[in-house]
Amino acid sequence: MTTQTDRHADRELVRAAAEVARTRCRGDNHTMAAAARARDGRIITAVNAYHFTGGPCAELVLIGTAAAQGVYELDTIVAVGDRDRGVVPPCGRCRQVLLDYFPALKVIVGDGDRTRTVAIADLLPETYVWADHQMTPDLMPPA
Fold first, then answer.
1. How far is residue 61 from each of residues 6, 26, 72, 98, 136, measured CA to CA in Å?
2. Which of 10, 82, 135, 139 has its CA 20 to 30 A from that of 29?
3. CA gap 61, 123 in Å, rounded
4. Among this protein's residues, is 73 annotated catalytic?
5. Residue 52 CB: number of other CB atoms within 10 A?
6. To 5 degrees, how large is the angle CA 109–CA 66–CA 27?
7. What does pTM read for this prediction?
């Protein structure tokens, strides 16, 4: 479901991520940038850290960067590829992590002038919410 949001704010986040992708992504180690708006209005940016053994996507680096800056509530996020690739939707792992950390998060997806903002839960049909499947103390077996 598409959410109603301020299109200016969406464009501002896309521009912030695109600027980081253009100026900070160099070579194969950093190919994606992400930007998110905190609930207090601040914009946080980050880039991925690719490595052949894996490595965190820009969205996951952004979560850590935000926490390092004391930001624990994000409103909207977007990822943009280097070399003018534009908005790139989050991968499956990022979708799951973003849902678990920020269940009310909005994500900018789409291409060119046809971007839109959707709820993170809408990117994961039949979602698995990690917190819903954790054992609570009253359900734990006796020691």
1. 25, 16, 13, 12, 29
2. 10
3. 20
4. no
5. 6
6. 65
7. 0.85
Tell me the longest C-alpha to C-alpha distance in the chain. Answer: 58
Residue type, 31: T
Tokens of 32: 């994606």
Residue 41 DSSP label = S
- Planar angle of CA 107, 78, 4, nearest 5 degrees: 40
**Residues 33, 96, 105, 8: is their CA dihedral positive or negative?**
positive
**In sequence order, what are the residues at sequence separation of 6 or more whose Cβ sits closer than 8 angstroms to the Cβ of residue 91?**
57
Q: Which of 12, 59, 73, 126 is catalytic?
A: 59
Per residue in 62-102, pLDDT tens?
999 999 999 999 999 999 999 999 999 999 999 999 999 99
Q: Is 94 exposed, middle or buried (0-12, 13-18, 19+ CB in 10 A)?
A: buried
Please give the structure tokens belonging to residue 118: 């959707």
